[in-house]
Design brief:
The chain is mainly α. It has helices at residues 3-19, 22-31, 37-52, 63-72, 76-113. It has one domain. It contains five helices and no strands. Helix 1 (3-19) runs antiparallel to helix 2 and helix 3 packs antiparallel against helix 4 (63-72).
Length: 114
Amino acid sequence: MSKESQRCLQEAYEELESELPDRLARAVGWVRAPERWWLRVTLGILCLVAGSLWFLPVVGLEFIPIGLLLLAQDIPFLQRPVARSILWLVQKYRDVRAWWRAKRAHRGQRSSVR
């Protein structure tokens, strides 16, 4: 495993956990423990299978990045591309959240003026 890939994946996990609710962030930290590799691999494969069934009403494409992130912890060649993708997704989430908050704040100011 490349140290750079590991560092990038660690950063992706930290950024993701900072955006998650505490309980979910603790669960992610628990699953990341080295002795739980079997759980990560199993959950990762299940998430990829669920993501491939996106056309069903219960599951969706959002399971694919989750599955890849879980598998990347134990599969070295996935670490860098998955970490970069997760960092990009977290940044886009933050951008959309900031845009939404600004839009709501602007709407609130406009309605209070009337």
